[in-house]
Amino acid sequence: MAGLTERASARLAARLARVEPLVRGARERSEDPVKSARTAVVVGRLLAAAFLVCFATGLYSHVLQNPLPWLPLPTRPAELYRYTQGTHVVTGIASVPLLLAKLWTVYPRLFRWPPVRSPAQLLERISIAVLVGVSLVEVTIGLLNIVQWYPFPFSFRSTHFALAWVAIGSLAIHLGVKLPVIARVWRRPAGDEPDATGRFISRRAFLGGVGVATVSAAALTAGQSVEVLGPLNLLAPRRMGVGPQGLPVNRTAAQAGVADDDVADGWSLRLITPTGVRAFTLDELRRMPQSDAVLPIACVEGWSQSASWRGVRLVDLLAEVDAAPTTPLVISSLQRRGAFSRTEMPPEYAADPLTLVALELNGGVLHLDHGYPARIIAPGRPGVMQTKWLSSIEVRS
Ligand SMILES: Nc1nc2c(c(=O)[nH]1)N[C@H]1C(S)=C(S)[C@@H](COP(=O)(O)O)O[C@H]1N2
Ligand SMILES: [Mo]
Question: What Pfam families would the database entry show (predicted)?
């Protein structure tokens, strides 16, 4: 019996001896200045800034898509959403290298022994685990969305929205807990430390590398909405100026299940009001006064491009059926299935004279993939709400 325990403990000791160098190595690396509190704070500031901007622009995109009845939405500047959503995607992408760098600077602390010293520290470690886990999932599903790959079985938008709150909540806890460390680092100037050279590279080289990685990741995707960066666009799937009539297409008519028959000569746009239904044929729409508007398609997935649209002002069309833009409109597409087949339009968009039932794009008849015979184009709205292949517009009482 005694021999058995002895043998077992000898085996355990041999195992531990093998693990020990790893733990010691990790502990030594925590003395590496690249893994110091200062580096963690410097990278952390940039990461927190990216997260906060990403969160704010994400919230804005969310309210545009789920309007609150008491909150008026801005229709001008017409390009506003282009910039907020472009910023959302760029800050989200920039946070990937920052997040990895931040993990690199702090991971030796995972091996600290004992792992938990107090209940407060247990809570802190749980909040960090949640922050790290949720942030990684959040940026990953965001990236998959940008490259138009939807392998997950859950709704992207509601999951992305819910996780954003969890991430920001655990970030607030983390910042609160770390405030003393952050304050200490901020008060002491950077040069005030004995050795700024790490085991492998200096802190300056590390931060420089993180900076280059972050700026490159952002620059390599921003080209999907910023013209001068267009040639650098390697990561994002849509190319500026590439597509029918010089504009990218998010979902083609074939993908949306809109057939040629649906848009043949018999097509008409039905205006449904509490007092009746009036159908406008394409010829009738073309005979009405036409207006021009230069407005962007600004996709929630980050790509955007301005284009020249021509068609009937929505306010003029509503006036034809004696309706005023005072209540939300329900806009339906010929597309039968899917979340995009029907959208609601708050009155502020319907009232804006730039909002068109567009019949033409960049000087030609609307291409089928851009929504022929007619589509909605409104200022300041997410692309997903710019309904293509119109079938009816309903005015609710
Ligand atoms: N009916 C319908 N309208 C739609 C869509 C759709 O799938 N179905 N996609 C939307 C999305 S996500 C965007 S970004 C714009 C893209 O417009 P475009 O293809 O003309 O560039 O159309 C919007 N309108
Ligand atoms: Mo979109």
Answer: Oxidored_molyb (PF00174)
